[in-house]
Amino acid sequence: MLFLNILSKVLFISFLLLGCQDKKEIAFYYWKSRCDVNSSFSYPLYVKVLDIGVKNVIKTVCKKPHISVVYIDNRALKQRDDISKLVLQTVPKDVKEVQFDCDWTLSTKKKYFQLLTKMKKYYKKITVTIRLHQLKYSEKTGVPPVDGGVLMFYNMSDFLDSKTKNYILDLKVAKSYLKDFKTYPLKLDLALPIYSMATIIRYGKVVGVIDGVKKNFLGKNFVHLKENRYKVLKTHYFKGHLLYEGDILRVDEVSLKILKKAVKMIPFEFGKIIYFRYSSLKYWEQKNLLSI
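Request: output the structure for the sequence above.
Response:
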């Protein structure tokens, strides 16, 4: 009897320890040019402090404790020679981590990797974002010379294809990238989407996008066709965009159920979950995001 009591206690403690190991830390991306975060917000923030385009540079100052993210337009890698200078002028050298977000290609790989190697001389920890195609074809696209990465598990379809089912997250498309996955040299976190958008389709072509649109935002001027497609019944302004009668809106959003399925698809052990993005948190219950 004593042995059974001891065994049951050991099993119970083991169960608790396993539960703690399975629980993931969560964080959020902040992707606006003005940093306005609730003072009571306690989760880690990844803030885009520097947005480097071909011609324009946008800086964001955030007093809330955060991890600095530097976004680099892939075209800027080809056309600018001042990227490292901009980073060093913007991001203090005493930060604990700097993350670089760039969808590099074969033609920009060498210059991007050289930049990352240079940045490692100035900052304690360098991480990068990784797209699914860079994960699947890493032998060609290369593995960045950094301390870790974040797999961006969204925006994996063709935005300009009017036949795209859900630009934000399509699990069928994701599965094709993860097929026959073996290993990846970097330790990865996982970025999941919690935002929504409406893609405007006119005469079969994508002509624009409206950020932050959910299905329940659409009123009497829209009629539901099928799945996430809605037809505009009357020419009018909607969230600052002029929509014409006959336009089709593809409302791309994700659900708790879809996000849970997405996590189960990941064929490797990942670290924290980073949700994109903070401004969409108002539409979610934090307990649901924690449950994922």
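Residues 1-21 have pLDDT under 50 and may be disordered.
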